[in-house]
Amino acid sequence: MAIVELKNVAKQYGSSGNNAVDNFNLVTRDGEFVVLVGPSGCGKSTTMRMIAGLERNTEGEILIGGRDVSQVPPKERDIAMVFQSYALYPHMSVAENMAFSLKLKKRPAEEIKAKVDEAAKTLGIEHLLERKPRELSGGQRQRVALGRAIVRSPQVFLMDEPLSNLDAKLRVDMRAEIVKLHKRLKVTTFYVTHDQVEAMTMGERIVVMKDGEIQQIDTPINLYEYPANRFVAGFIGNPSMNFLRGTLADGVVGGEGYRLTLDAAHQAAVASHHGDIWVGIRPEHLRLADGDEPNNGLEGTVEVVETLGAVTMVQLAVGETTITAQLPGHRQIAIGDSLSLACDSDKLHLFDVDSDRAIGREPAAASSTAAEA
Ligand SMILES: Nc1ncnc2c1ncn2[C@@H]1O[C@H](COP(=O)(O)OP(=O)(O)O)[C@@H](O)[C@H]1O
Ligand SMILES: [Mg+2]
Fold this sequence. Notes:
elongated, alpha+beta, binds magnesium ion, 21 strands, 373 residues, CATH 2.40.50.140, binds adenosine-5'-diphosphate, Rossmann fold
């Protein structure tokens, strides 16, 4: 176990062009489970490879357990990696695959056997130890890859999209197992995914990245409730947040087809802003208006209705913008219907149109984009 610290870390491949990773700052807690999430190409793997020592950072410092590892080769960093491709040795049995790194370290045979047996038990693969990788399912191979990492008792686990090759159901099972495994082993873990649901369900803290830059570092619930900018707001949450252009004046935001009055606290928080604005509303925060608040809500024409049983998803045109509303239960709504929707002021998100930064709402215990010890 160890604290991992990245200070102003940047990576440039070759001599020209943009940084693949830029100005990355993060201090983990000892034993923390940190998820890096963002679209393909945003620099997640590059960050992991720099922590592992497979790539040199072009700028900044990386410390593991307080030690600057810039000059330390990968095999001396006391890190174990698990990748999307399991890269098991095909000619070796499961037990031999798991034992391999300990054999290289010339550990005594009894110790190796004890560690392999213990890891196999933890992962529920004791009965597979004599099989070859080709005799295993995808989920079983992924367990072996995890087992190979566990037997090394590293200070840090690096997992780069380890579940991407598994089917959806198995992925959900395995992500719960990795969380349980982490609770038991308490090893500081960096986990990469492009899937925001995986990030939200697994991460103690989540680093949201885009174009090589950190957008926000926070707990899952703070990312959901207090996204720092429009990118994070749209990336975290499923279905995605709706965005409407509008103007803010005298405590009211409005645009074509909608008008929403901010409550006193929200008005105070955005007091220094007026004029053009983005309004963000999550689909699950829209509800059918009960008619007692005329001139406060959204008016739309239904374009698509999806009946999912537990919820009804409705796409409607509000002015020029199509938004999604997630209404609880089964609703009798038809294409072409006019709907009046409402949203509570404390569920509205406002964003600056130039910077895309969130305006006005702050988490109680602010941790926002700053790295915390
Ligand atoms: N070995 C490399 N040489 C040059 N460019 C690279 C190399 N590896 C990654 N990149 C570039 O760096 C950026 C970040 O890549 P990567 O870290 O793999 O993203 P992610 O894992 O988030 O999908 C991308 O633009 C990618 O094309
Ligand atoms: Mg990657």
